[in-house]
Design goal:
135 residues, mainly alpha, Arc Repressor Mutant, subunit A, three-stranded mixed sheet, two-stranded parallel ribbon, 5 helices, globular
């Protein structure tokens, strides 16, 4: 029996079911509660050199699964999980990771709680743009 904290990978890969619930008075209509893997997958769809906001990610997930909105709390947590897994994989030499540096907040800024902070994420995005321009 394993004890202790789950790894970021275990949190991403864990058995989760998405669901649509009544959003209640703060979020009227149908609210999607996504899975970490769904959030990870949509981040992977952001083209190289481009960015997407958390709000657009939430909107796209809701639209795909038949809801009016997506839980902002779960989405934020799952973006963090995807980013931490990607950062661990990058550190071990894997280049094909979830490009969390393409996710920005509503003001178009990188998020300080993700690996590398705002500066590190901006640097990864800039390197990606520079690589594309040099081809």
């Amino acid at each position: 029996m394993k004890t202790g904290k789950k790894s970021w990978r275990e949190k991403l890969e864990g058995v989760h079911d998405w669901k649509i619930v009544d959003g209640g008075p703060r979020s009227p209509g149908l609210l999607l509660v996504p899975t970490p893997k769904q959030v990870d997958a949509i981040i992977r769809e952001i083209p190289p050199g481009a960015v997407s906001s958390v709000k657009l990610i939430r909107r796209a997930l809701a639209r795909r699964l038949g809801a009016e909105s997506t839980c902002p709390l779960c989405t934020g947590i799952f973006i963090r999980i995807a980013a931490e897994v990607a950062d661990e994989e990058r550190a071990s030499g894997n280049e094909w990771v979830t490009p969390y540096w393409r996710v920005v907040d509503g003001r178009g800024k990188h998020m300080p709680k993700l690996p590398g902070g705002r500066e590190g994420q901006a640097s990864l995005l800039q390197a990606e743009v520079d690589a594309a321009l040099s081809r």
